[in-house]
Amino acid sequence: MLSLTVSADPGGIDQGENVQVDKVLFISKGRKRDQILVHTIEKTYYMIGTLRHWENFLNSNGFRFLNVDRSNTLNVEKVKIVNGIFKDAYFECDITKTSKRCPIAYHRFEEVIKEMGFINSDIIFTGVATR
Fold first, then answer.
1. Which alpha helices (H) appear in 47-92, and where do they start and end?
2. Domain spans in the chain, listed from the N-terminal domain onward
3. 92-115: b or e for each residue (b if 16 or more CB lie within 10 Å)?
4. How far apart, in whole angstroms, are the C-alpha atoms of residue 6 and residue 49?
5. How many whole angstroms separate alpha carbon 25 and alpha carbon 19?
6. Over the stretch 35-49, which tens digit does the pLDDT of each residue have?
7. Distance, CA of 100 to CA of 85 (rounded, Å)
8. Domain 3-126: which topology?
9. Does the reported pTM lie above 0.85?
10. Exposed site from 3, 82, 112, 120, fewest CB < 10 Å?
11. What phi-psi label fits residue 87: left (phi over 0), alpha (psi between -120 and 50 degrees) or beta?
């Protein structure tokens, strides 16, 4: 199983940890240039690189990451629910205030949910108009 070497410290000072890619919910741009945040259910980690680089790398290794806006790329296999009103993807069926969510760009929402549905037919779409 492929894993990413990440840091729990945004400065990258602490010892690195390995996180299995199948535990990654989504990756997002950090505040610093070339800083990426790696989101799992339990924690957020940091690593170096660009969003496009990591999306291409992960997809070329058999994973299904989809860029949903300029700052977020999500692991479509991990998505459980997409809220069409707020344009957010969730990674658990019982959504609470503390649930992790990944925003989806409003202007790309229709295109993104169509592609997500092709990749993962188990996703539940709420508040989405069907045509």
1. 51-60
2. 3-126
3. eeebeeeebbbbbeeeebeebbee
4. 11
5. 11
6. 999 999 999 999 999
7. 17
8. OB fold (Dihydrolipoamide Acetyltransferase, E2P) (2.40.50)
9. yes
10. 3
11. left
